[in-house]
Amino acid sequence: MALKSLKKKRRIQVVALAAVALTVSTVLIGIAMKDGINLFRSPSQVMEAPPAPNEVFRIGGLVEEGSLLRGAGTEIHFSVTDGGATLPVVFKGVLPDLFEENQGTVATGRYVNGVFEASEVLAKHDETYMPKEVVDALKEQGVYQEPEE
Prior knowledge:
Elements: H1 2-36, E1 39-41, H2 43-48, E2 57-63, E3 69-70, E4 75-81, E5 86-92, E6 104-112, E7 115-123, H3 132-141
Parallel strand pairs: 1-2, 5-7
Antiparallel strand pairs: 2-4, 2-6, 3-4, 4-5, 6-7
């Protein structure tokens, strides 16, 4: 009878240990993913509900014509629009070769004091490609035009 009680106790300990290990691993995965997930927002969404200055997210839209200004060194200023709102962007670094006005772009960074501080800027890679999020945001504002074949 003592042997049966010992087996039952051991089984409960193993199940409890497995539950603790599962909980700890779930929490660690959640913490790791929090740093790796960047939510997408259109300029209109950012203007409607500005995120906290420490929140990293992605914006996308078209580079507004006439807004591209190169500053001292590698600092570049431009605006991204979705047709409903325009968001000023500052980026320190080298822009992709395909980056130009009236073209689709996606940038990762933070919204601080009314300016999006980009840490990474991506440009479309051919004549027909634009990220799905950017197309959806432009369609929502009624300014998206299908590419010519």
